[in-house]
Amino acid sequence: MTEKQKRQQSEVPHYVLDYAPLVYLHSQEKYFPSDISAQLSSSNTQPEANFTVVSGASSPLTLDNLNELNSFGTVYLTSKVDITTNPAWLNGVVPDSSGKTENAVPCAIIVNDHGSGNVDAFYMYFYAFNWGGVVLKQQFGDHVGDWEHNMIRFSDGIPTYIWYSQHSNGEAFAYKVVKKSGLRPITYSANGSHANYATTGDHDHTIPNFNLPAGLVEDHTDAGTLWDPMLSAYYYSYTPISSSAGTFAAYDTSTPVNWLYYTGKWGDEQYPDSDKRQKNFLRLGFYKYVSGPTGPEDKQLNRTKVCPDNGVNCILRVVLGP
């Protein structure tokens, strides 16, 4: 074991906890943070590939064996009940008065220690369902399963920048300019979509990385229900093997690890055009229901920049805005 691995596996750095974000869910939110393991429950989902139940998969699926599904190709954790009937498990868990999701673990905190005092801490948030929103009176972009995150870059234990994930991209702000409760930065989760923002209000995201107060495709945030993800979370260190792969280790030996290596999708596969639940929005390729997302291992945990490398300029904002 290398010195870096020993350092990562000892204990969660205190500053990762001291500066952990607090999340305000929208006051109209219907789909709250969800227990990660509940998404695997045989009463909620079943593993499918090409719309066919995977034969030979472990049963029951657990956070300890989920990664075994990788041998079956691209697998989707598919709802066993028609989601248009609004099964209760999609609703998640409403945080209590302290901000805790009782009997549910919807957060994974992953620490990548680059060495020389440089540390990235990822705060991964899970929801069982994403409500995409309405554009020109048409609803589109709904999907089962939803992973969002903040990432804070630390230098010698001092937070320098924070990343807010938003759909296919997001925004990065200097830590010093964002809103805080004590040391902890505030994240505002958009109604239904759970995209993360540094401010309340309306956020147009028609053009990635160029948010405006109003536009065609909007998210909406306010200081609704307080959620403290740190109160119910799994904690891990991450050791990169390459730019796109690495190994995970739990800080607590009782914490499940193998689920982090699952490369499949956390929801249904996009329904075919012929499916009666599906709508092709103005024939422009925007659908009412799209495929579920990949998990934390696919969120570029070994970044060079604060932003993920996705071909969009990484703007490090030093003024707070939408």
Automatic annotation (TrEMBL):
InterPro entries: Vps62. It comes from the Eukaryota. This is Vacuolar protein sorting-associated protein 62. It comes from Lepidopterella palustris CBS 459.81.
